[in-house]
Design a protein that fits this description.
Strand content: under 5%
Number of domains: 1
Mean pLDDT: 90
Helix content: 55-70%
Distance between the termini: 33 Å
Strand order of the largest sheet: 1-2
């Protein structure tokens, strides 16, 4: 889960990226066409398409921000981590 992708989403930006790790699953559906195979030409094409269309960038950015607010806000992440770690107490007795 790249933090740079989360930061871009929170900032309301569209993302052009290679399809590694969780990148595709993190982004809004509208952003998926710009997550490409690990190929320099494909990435350049995705970036060029976004650069050429300000309205598209803005729409995708808004969708990414909405997803970040719904899926990755602080409380949601705390609950997810608590579930992942099986409810391990945050304060350990000494």
């Amino acid at each position: 889960m790249p933090l740079s992708v989360l930061e871009a989403m929170a900032a309301g930006l569209a993302v052009a990226a290679t399809d590694v790790g969780d990148v595709a699953t993190m982004l809004a559906d509208e952003n998926h066409p710009f997550v490409v195979p690990c190929d320099a030409a494909a990435l350049a094409e995705a970036m060029a398409a976004l650069l050429a269309d300000p309205a598209l960038r803005q729409g995708i950015g808004a969708a990414n921000r909405g997803r970040a607010e719904r899926e990755y806000d602080q409380e949601t992440m705390f609950r997810a981590y608590a579930g992942l770690f099986g409810g391990v107490p945050t304060v350990l007795a000494s």
